[in-house]
Amino acid sequence: MQSQTVSDPEVTSQAPTVRPILEARSLSKSYGETHALSELDLSVAPGDIYCLLGPNGAGKTTTINLFLGFIAPTSGQALVADLDVAEHDRETKAYLAYIPEQVMLYRNLTGLENLEYFAALAGKKLEVDQLRSTLVEAGLQSEAIDRRVSGYSKGMRQKVGIAIALAKEATALLLDEPTSGLDPKASNEFSALLEGLRERGVAVLMATHDLFRAKETGTRVGIMRHGRLVAEMSTSELGHSDLERIYLNHMRE
Amino acid sequence: MTIRTVFRNEMRLLAADRVLLSSLVLFVALFAYAIANGFAWVAKQEGTVAAVQAAEEERGAALAAELERIAAGGDPGSPFRDPRAANVLGGNLGARTVVLGPGPLASLSVGQSDLLPYYYDVSIYTNEQTFLQNGEVENPLNLMVGRFDLAFIIIYLLPLLVLALSYNVLSGEREQGTLALTLSQPVAVRDVVVAKLLFRALLVVGLALGGSLVGAAVWGGLGAPVRLALWCGAVVTYGLFWFGTAAWVNTLGRESSWNATVLVGAWLGLVVVLPAVGNIAAGILHPLPSRVEMINTAREASNESVNRRSELLARYLEDHPEMAGGVVDDVAGTAALSWAATEEVNRQVEGVAVRFDEQLSKQQALVSRYRLVSPALLAQSVLNDAAGSGDARFAHFEAQVRTFAEEWRGYFVPAILAGQVMTAEAAMGRPEFVYSEEELSVVLGRSAMPLAMLLTLALLAVVPAAIRLGRVRGGG
Amino acid sequence: MIIRIARKELTDQLRDGRFRASALMVGALLLVSLGAGWTQVSSARAQLEAAEATARNHWESQGDKNPHSAAHYGVYAFKPRLPLSFVDQGVDPWTGTSVWLEAHRQNDFLMRPAQDASAAQRFGTLTAAGVLQQLVPLLIILLGFGALAGERERGTLRQVLASGVSRRDLMAGKAAGVAGALALLVVPAALLGSAALVLGSTATGSLLARAVVLAVVYLTYFGAFIGLALAISAWVPSSRTALVTLLSLWVVNGLVAPRAAVDLSGWLHPSPTAFEFSRQIEEGMANGVEGIRPPDRQAITNRLLQEYGVDSVEDLPVNLSGITLQASEEFGNAVYDHNYTELWDTFERQSRVHESLAVVAPLLAVRALSMGLAGTDIEQHRHFATAAETYRRDMMAAMNGDLAQNSRTGETYLAGDELWVSVPPLDYEAPTLAWVLGNRTVSMLMLGLWLLGALSAAVAGARRAEVGP
To answer: Is the Cβ pair C115, B52 closer than 8 Å?
Structure first.
């Protein structure tokens, strides 16, 4: 059994110092003969921004779906705050916030109403003032708050997604390619928001294609291919173009 | 050029689309079911007609035998059973049952034939009451729901098939992105869309026409080619309306789901809701005259006649001076008196009934204008008429029965009043009813208006669709 | 939580232009149909009351007559319309409205309103029942087809489930949301209908009970449809498939299955043709039925002579004609009972087939219950027909009895107004709610099964629904 082969001698994995919030133990998912994810071991602790890199079909989204309990693992465990997701589907979600590539909201409701609804679903009853300030904190222009979401740009919807995470006081954030399709300014704002969350001790797991942003924003990086985590490293140890070189190396085999 | 290319492509697309293919198969099954149903219904009616005619012949034979027996010196037993008495012969023993056979294309449309009476007993006692009878014995619940015949499929379900096949004929191409590709070729969008629609129309209308021909053929309907042509004309025009509507909606440039919603809404409105609203509006704005009131009025009229019974004979003889000499002996006098009273009652009741019928036909004329709101109503009236199961054919039959009853009375009443003994020849020579089918020109004439209206509605959809199609440029 | 979800669903729906437009349309149709039904029933009831009074007057003021002549003269009975029939006219237009009660014959109900109307009436008339049975389900489909499938396609389902809400709560909230949107439409109409019922007629307890059960029946039906729409929305892959599936079910439910039931019922329980039926009655009259023979006038005469110990009929203290007429009346009753019972039973067996087909189309169950509660089903037509026939028989017995007791054989005898007045008018009492529901056990069972089945399918669907891409 091959496990977490760190074939790159230049990079050493940095073990988390505090108890992880997100943890995968030999996590596997296969559909018939297709192995979407094989024997993944991974942990993300508070204050970590862990970026999963890899081509389409490498298993990034599968990993996120397994943490969310949307699919059941074939073997292994996905743990959120030491709870097995497969057994504690609803309890674990109290810790999680999820922001997909496209944050999809109810088009006929306003940003405020959407936030209020999703916060309520998560069991958080907030006053209108609190909801507003959360949206503003997430970076939404205050004049957009009472407009229907059908007129929002992708970036605006993403901010509502962040606001939902903030309102929920989630301790772990699952992001699935959040910056693809955002213009550079919006991407920068987004990174700043993530940094803010990280400082508050939120654990972030982010699937992305954006090597540059992974290097800039992330604290740790994992490279996936064919359902396996093939490399893991800390961004502080990387030089400017190291990441791209390592990534391409892994893709070449 | 393009038509063949498009047809071949469409055929390939259709063969690949399992949903569409299975809905076509489903429709073929529905057609087969409806044809079997129509067949069973006509068979039942034909069976009844045969039974009625057999009973009629039996009665004629019994009458002939009785006359022969009496001629040989036999005793009729009672004056009420003596076939030589004109009032007995014309009233009971010699009475005729007249019957209307199923229409020429009855296997295609049950229409009103499960509701309206199609046979009557005609005797000298035939009067307005006779025509107030029920038709076939049928569960009212079944009458309310209606039958699963070919006309039902064509009116209700066929439009749904049309819409399912063509709601995205243009919008789908745009959404798939194939429209831009097509537009980059040296062909007109209109030609492509028309060819696509034509292909579907041939499929759907062809299915309907094929089903109709088979349905007609199983019960000798091919012997009525003009009616069959009228039927087919209605089917084609109705199909054209729905294809035209689908094409027009497609040219509005909205997405497929919007088209589907609008077209299903149109179907619901035109086929289900509007006819129902029209019926309720007709019922309230032009209420049917009250049958209940008619009964009581007729009753009052006849009470009065009965009370004035004695005056009546005198008056009758005044009206018919040629009879005065004939009323001789006592028995004949009683019969004559009784007849005079009957006649007066009939006349009074008829007065009430005629007023009622006038009101009724006025109401129906008003209501028939409501047909214009819905192509389904227009199609139904043409289809029923073509099949010979519409209201008009039954009215035509009833009118002939009335004339025949008139003739019948003319044959017997003078003899009753004159106290004449009916000879065996006179008995066997009593009037016979021969139904003469409606003239085709009458049927066609009656259907011309609704068919023209249907065509107009179809064109109202087709023409703007064609114009707008000519303007389609970009891939929107 | 469920309420919170329902509130959001409601807001969402109310902001949707398509829903607003169609709800307005259906609401308008519902109000129009209630109003129109009310107008028609009121005027029909007024007409009937007037006609009954006139008919009774004809009977009472027929002057001096032999009782048997009076029996031949007879009376007309008119089928009453229950106040609730403004919601559902049921088979009323297709049954006759009046019957002539005369000597010797059990007549058919004549003058079906449908016979006077044109073929256009085959499309049905707008009634509240039609709107509730056909159009409201369509609205439910519109509200519910995207409930899960749509959220899955838009991606909001992932967002919602990531929030930690339980799937069952989500489904329940959606159901409550649809129900709430529907309530905005149905509740005012129901209130209006009840107000009309209470203010506009002598609302008896039994009538109100019928109205309440009617409301429950429709709510169950709507509940089943909500469950069905949500279940299918959860089970099928896309909202388009959900819509197409639901619309197909709607067509089967409202158009195909009811007509298929007509054919199936006729095939399983064929009714005689009118010709056969009258033949059977003639045949029974000639040769007797069920071992009952036509009365023998001579035997009756002999029995009477012996009983009273006299030698000739003129010496009898009773009128022989009265006795023999009654005997032949009773024989005729047996023949009619035999044939009509068979016919009515056939019709009822046919309705049972319609009800059983509710297995594929809940409309058939709700329609049967609705007609039953409105008092416009076949069973209640039969109930009235039987009451009218019983009344006819009592009346004939009274006429023949008077003739037999108050006159001698062969003498000319005229009775007067006292006799006519002594026959009470037909006082018909509609059957009880329990009687109506007793006829409808199949439908109640079917409707209950649909509700349970649809709701459990929805719950199961929610549990297993894919979250989507």
So the answer is: no
Q: What is the pLDDT of residue A8?
A: 45
- pLDDT tens for each residue of B296-306: 777 787 777 66
Same domain, A68 and A136: no
pLDDT at C202: 67
Cα-based angle A88, A89, A95 (whole degrees, multiple of 5): 90
B78: contact with C, CB 8 A cutoff: no
Residues C160, A118: C-beta atoms closer than 8 Å: yes
How far away is chain A from the Cα of C155, in angstroms, using its nearest Cα?
Answer: 5
Q: Nearest by CB to C11, which of A105, A109, A168? A: A109
Specify if A230 maps to a domain: yes
The total domain count for chain A is 2
Q: Range of A149's domain?
A: 106-168
Q: What is the largest CA-CA distance in chain A?
A: 56
Distance, in Å, from the CA atom of B193 to the CA atom of B416, rounded to the nearest integer, reads 76
Counting beta carbons within 10 angstroms of the beta carbon of residue C39, is it exposed (0 to 12), middle (13 to 18) or buried (19 or more)?
middle
**Contact state of B293 with C48 under an 8 Å Cβ cutoff:** no
Instruction: Give a yes or no: residue C296 inside a domain.
Output: yes
Whether A144 and A228 map to the same domain: the answer is no
Is the confidence at residue A76, as pLDDT, over 60?
A: yes
C426 falls within a domain: yes
Q: Which residues of C touch B288 (CB under 8 A)?
A: 113, 116-117
For chain C, what is the domain count? 1
Q: How many CB atoms are closer than 10 A to CB A68?
A: 22
Position A100 in a domain: no
Tell me the ipTM for this assembly.
Answer: 0.91
**Higher local confidence (pLDDT), B408 or B347:** B408
Same domain flag for A59 and A71: yes
Handedness of CA C362, C365, C366, C371 (dihedral sign): positive
- Asked if the C-beta of B434 comes within 8 angstroms of chain C's C-beta atoms, the answer is no
Note whether C54 and C75 are within 8 A (CB).
no
CATH number at residue A229: 3.40.50.300
> Does residue C62 belong to the interface with chain B, where contact is any CB pair within 8 Å?
yes
Q: Among residues 14-43 of chain C, which lie with CB inside 8 Å of chain B?
A: 18, 22, 29, 32-33, 36, 39-40, 43
| Pair C132, C30: CB distance under 8 Å | yes
Q: Classify residue A85: in a domain, yes or no.
A: yes
CB-nearest to B156 from C40, C255, C260 is C255
CB distance B323 to B414 below 8 Å:
yes
How far does the CA of residue B3 sit from the closest CA of chain C (Å)? 30
Among A233, A239, A204, residue whose Cα is nearest residue A221: A233
User: Inter-chain contact B137–C271, Cβ cutoff 8 Å?
Assistant: yes
Alpha carbon distance A194, A205 (integer Å)? 11
A57 and A120 both lie in a single domain: no
What pLDDT is recorded for position C292? 87
Host domain of residue C223: 2-464
Q: Which of C4, C162, C467 has its CB closest to that of A96?
A: C162
| Tokens linked to B140 | 């009212």
Of C297, C350, C356, which is closest to residue C325 (Cα–Cα)?
Answer: C297
Q: Which of C11, C163, C467 sits opposite A93 (nearest CB)?
A: C163
Q: Is the pLDDT of residue A7 over 50?
A: no
Residues A196, A110, single domain; the answer is no
Residue B457 has pLDDT above 50, yes or no: yes
Write down which residue in A115, A138, A168 finishes a domain. A168
Question: Mean pLDDT across the stretch C327-354?
Answer: 94
Domain end, chosen from A123, A139, A168, is at: A168
A90/A111 same-domain check: no
Quick one: A80 and A184 in the same domain?
A: yes
Same domain, A72 and A134: no
**Greater model confidence, A93 or C363:** C363
- The pLDDT confidence band at residue C360, using thresholds 50, 70 and 90, is very high
